[in-house]
Amino acid sequence: TTPPQCSPSPATYFQYTTVTPPQCLSYTLNTDATRNIGYTSSINYCDDVAPFSNTTSVWIRFQEPAGTLLASSPVSPNYCGTVVTGWYAGQYPSPVFTTATSIVCFYYATNTCSSCATISVTNCLNFYVYLLPEPQSCNYRYCTL
């Protein structure tokens, strides 16, 4: 596979279905308040621990107090418990049971998309689930709101 093109305005690909996708029924719940964009007490957290420290990506649902969505605009470095902040640069899927595939950008120094990773987002009616890979190194983290 070719590495994704890192851009703060990437293409988003949509896959539609009329039945409940399996990831809407089976996912990992994440309620970690330190990944919310309002958290600034520490910048020592990393997403190189379970469930991310997996060789394959995992479907994750964010729930309070973490927040319920991946941030969808650049989050300044040193927020949400980390140095290099991850935010979803693609478009959210509107129709129920639709999965969008695009990228998460990682904001480092002054570059809002210094590196990136391909992810998928599924609209499960009342919530979204995200197929997230382990970030490339420590102090990279997905930020929520």
Question: What do these coordinates show?
Answer:
With 145 residues, the chain is mainly β. It has one domain. Strands 1, 2, 3, 4, 5, 6, 7 and 8 form an 8-stranded mixed β-sheet that branches. The mean pLDDT is 94.
Summarize the structure.
This protein has 145 residues and is mainly β.
Task: Annotate the secondary structure layout.
Elements: E1 13-15, E2 28-30, E3 58-62, E4 84-88, E5 99-108, E6 111-123, E7 128-132, E8 140-142
Parallel strand pairs: 2-3, 4-8
Antiparallel strand pairs: 1-5, 3-7, 4-5, 5-6, 6-7
Key structural traits:
145 residues; mainly beta; 8-stranded mixed β-sheet; 0% helix; 32% strand
Structural class per helix/strand content?
mainly beta
Sequence of secondary-structure elements: EEEEEEEE
**Helical residue percent?**
under 10%
Number of strands: 8
- Judging from the principal axes of the Cα atoms, what is the shape? globular
Q: Give the overall pLDDT as a whole number.
A: 94
What is the terminal separation in angstroms?
A: 31 Å
Q: Can you tell me the number of structural domains?
A: 1
**Number of contiguous helices:** 0
What share of the residues does DSSP label as strand, in percent? 25-35%
The parts where pLDDT drops under 50 for at least 5 residues are none
Largest sheet: 8 strands, mixed
Q: What does the radius of gyration come to?
A: 14 Å
